[in-house]
Structures are given as C-alpha cells and as structure tokens.
Amino acid sequence: MSAATVSRWSGRFVLVSAGFLLAWQVGVLVGVPRRTEVALGLYGFVLHAVFGKAYSLVPSYFDRRLAFPRAPALHLPFAVAGTVGLAVGSIGGSPSIGALGALAWALGVGVFLGALLWTVRGNLTGRETGTGDANADRRPVDRAANAFVPVALAYLALGTYATLAAHAALPSPFGGFLPRASHLLAAGTGAMLVFAVGFRLLPRFLVASPPRPLVALVLPAGAVGPVLLAATLGGGPPFRVAALLEATALIGFATAYAVLWSRSSRRRVGLYAAFAGALSGALAAVVGLSFAFLGPIAPALVLAHLRLALLGFLGLTIVGVTYQFYPPGVGSFPGANDRTALASIVCLGGGLLLGVLGAVGGAPPATAVGEPIAAVGAGLYAYLVAGLLRERRSTLAARSGRR
C-alpha cells in the first residue's frame, strides 16, 4: 500500500509540474518578467518533476523504501504555494507575498530532504544500489552515480536557503542575489540529478552502457561547477573556471548520451526528447562560456541561456523521461499516441530553437513565432500527462475494487 501511495503522489507532482510548464509558456507569451519565468519554470516545472520522481526512484536506487510514504502528500501543498507565492511576488505583488512563498517553499523542501535523508541514512554513499545480479556489470556506474545524489540534495538545501534569505533579509554567503540561488537549484540540484539519476536510468532505457571515463568526468565537474558559478557569478578568472567546469559536465553528458544512442537500437519517443535535452544542455554551456570569456553580456543572450537550460536541457529531459514512465501509446483517450507525444517534443524543441535564434541573431520575428509554438507543445504535454495519469488512477481503482 505504501508503494501505491508514493506512486500516486509522485504522479501528482508530475501533473502539477506539467501545469506549471504550461503556465510558464503562457506567461512568456504575455511578457512576464524574467524572475517570474524562473519561478514558474524552475521552481514550478523542473523541481516539482524532480521531487515527484525522486520520491519514487531515489529510495529504490539506494536499496531502500521511502520511510514516510505520506511525505509527498505533505510536501506538495507547500511546494505549490511556494511557487505561486514566488511567482506573484515577482510581478509587482507585495514583497510579503514573495517572502511567504519562499517560506512555504522552504518548509516543503524540509519535508522532502527529511524524508529522503532518513530513508537512506544507513547508505548515504549509495554503495548498496539495489542492482540485481543480472545487471552486475552496471554496479560500478550505479555506485558512482549514487554517491552524487547527496550532493544534489545539499544544493537543494543551499539554494532554498539562498531563496529564503533573498526574500527575508537573512544573512547569506550569496548576498541575496536571486540568480545565484537559481544557479544553485538549476545547475546544482536539477542538472546534478539529471547526471546522477540519468547515468542509472538512461542506460537501462537504451539497453546500452555509458562510457565510464565520461561518467568519471561528468559527475565531479557537475558537482563542483554550480557552487563556483553561484559564488563568482559576474565575471573574473574564478567565474571562467566555474563556467568551464559546468560546460565540461554538460557537454560530457551530451557526448555520453550520444554514445549510448549509437550503441542502442531503442528509438522510443521519449528518448528523442532526452537526446534533444542533452544537446540543449551543450548549447546552454556554449552560451555560458561566451558570458565568461567574451562579454559584455546582452540581456537577450541571458534569456536565451535561461531557456536553453530550463526548457531545453532540464525541460526536454523531464518530458522524455516522463514519456518513458507514462507511455502515451497505452492511453485510450483521443490523441493518446506517440504522434501526439512527438508533436509536443517538436513544438517544445522547435519553439525553443526559434526563440534562441531570434535572441542570438537579433531577429524578433523568429522569437515571435517560436514562443507560441513552444506554448502549444506545453499544452500537448500537459494534456497527455493529465489523461495518462487519470486513466492510470482509474485502472488502479478498478483493480482495488475487484479485490
């Protein structure tokens, strides 16, 4: 019963995440401020999906069961209220609304971290992987990946405190500068979990093995880069070192995925989205390197970097993994098929690419076309996720009624 409870609430986090993706893309169309994009895209879309899948995946990857199956149910209202408060506070609302949102967000993160850390407390290094004997050859990579999950959780705690400090005038090593907090959460938590969980999950999806030298390169670089970025954001030699480390992780991960792809015969629709996400991460790294080594930083390029990182790397990866866990073809409602899923991926990726090209090339018409296309992709994704989760819930309820 506890596994069913965790699965049900994990799905609700994913559904709320899809709703925030749609809200973000609609917000882009109406011209919300960049801070609002970060609230909806990072805190709402990306991190809600991270929370949902972490509750179900991390305990099993550490050969444990979630110690508090009701933790996701307690966490979700805080996460939603926190995101809404941060978003409203960023568009001219009372500063107190943003502060309350940051507090609610912090309380929810406290529930999440407490539940996961208590669950894996006897296996913090992740040496026990839950990997069966049939996959014994994967254990070295699985152990290496597990070891960096606590790093991502530490970044979540640090980024959450930096968010709260910026809204509540608390002392912070990052000076209350919100872009530092968002880098801790996006690069430190989001990207680090993509690297760590991805090196366990994606090889199994593709039925292939990743190059171990790249695993050994990506994980440490991805662990060190975000804190250096947050501490040195703005320029100078230390910022260049940080940008190089993060670029090494992102480009190395994209290369590892490309090798996995070449070694695999699997071509499921979600895997295309994950590939597009990895390539977007490499592009985000290139734009980030331009900030560090070329300068000055144009506002349009900053927005392009943000969207490549959030909608491209993290977003398309989340969409791809979600379609793996909730295959569109199993649905029986209108449009529940791989064609609709592929259309959502093409719209999200194509709209993002047009927007980036418009920003980099100074071509507003490309951006004007790309943004509504991306919004259509977000709508299709939200529609599929909502329908698939509704049908799964109905199926489970029917099975329970027959017992």
Please tell me about this protein's structure.
This protein has 403 residues and is an all-alpha fold. It has a domain of 124 residues. The chain contains 13 helices and no strands. Helix 1 runs antiparallel to helix 2, helix 2 packs parallel to helix 11 and helix 10 runs parallel beside helix 12. The protein is globular, with a radius of gyration of 20 Å. The model has no long low-confidence stretch (mean pLDDT 92).
Summarize the structure.
Helices cover 80% and strands 0% of the residues.
| Radius of gyration from the alpha-carbon trace, in angstroms | 20 Å
Sheet having the most strands: none
Query: What's the N-to-C terminus distance?
Result: 13 Å
User: What is the count of β-strands?
Assistant: 0
Report the portion of residues in β strands: under 5%
Count of alpha/pi helices: 13
- Inertia-based shape: globular
Structural class: mainly alpha
Spell the H/E element sequence.
HHHHHHHHHHHHH
Q: What are its keywords?
A:
single chain, 403 residues, mainly alpha
